[in-house]
Hints:
By secondary structure, the protein is an alpha+beta fold.
Amino acid sequence: MSLDRLFKVLDIPIDYTIEYDQLSRGMLEKYRLFLCFRDGMVWPDGYLGPDAYTDYEGRLENSSRAVPPKSQTSTTEDQGEPIKDFVKDFAPTKPKTWITEDQGAAIRDFVSAGNGFYALHNSSHISLSSKNYRDVMGGRYIGHPPLRPFRVRASQNQHPITQGVQEFMVNDEQHYVEYDKDKSHIILESENIDGLVYEELGTKSISGWAYDFGKGRVVFTAVGHTIYAIRAPEYFQIQKRSVLWLLKQL
């Protein structure tokens, strides 16, 4: 798991789950910190890949044949032996959102009660389908260009998480996000220093924030599409300091 090294260094036990439908108040109540490292979609009819919902799919040479439907095969005969011949006309797939408002409220209430919530990378996408999740997470996903180098640095807002952390370059998805709350909570900014823009949003984007929510705390950091990005040395320091701050140990 990409976060194993982080929690090993911090000597903090961590439990993993991919069972998004089990997220609930009961599941969260035995923890002090909840991390979310996934987007807001599931693919019940098949999955092209991590970029299936972006314009990457549209740039495939034959995007309409990207994913085969379930169990569609035919057989022919060759010298008396059956040969499996996969059907070549494939149907495109559609994602569905998974979070419920009750699950979003469970996270909101968990943090408000005094616990920590670390939203990583594309978990900002979940805000598009849950008002309660967005309320506690603090913002929403807009979009991103393909993988390419960009710089990440601390904002002018002073914060314990970014104290002593140097700016760094990373080859990753530069996520563009909207932040809903006080701009003084923004702790990280990213910039494509080659002058490459994303749509009409320019070269710069918010790359992280941290703030108190009720009796608890929330951190969002946008970097993390690849294992190389998530373990970039300076970003690794930011993750460590984020976890400690969320646990009120920093």
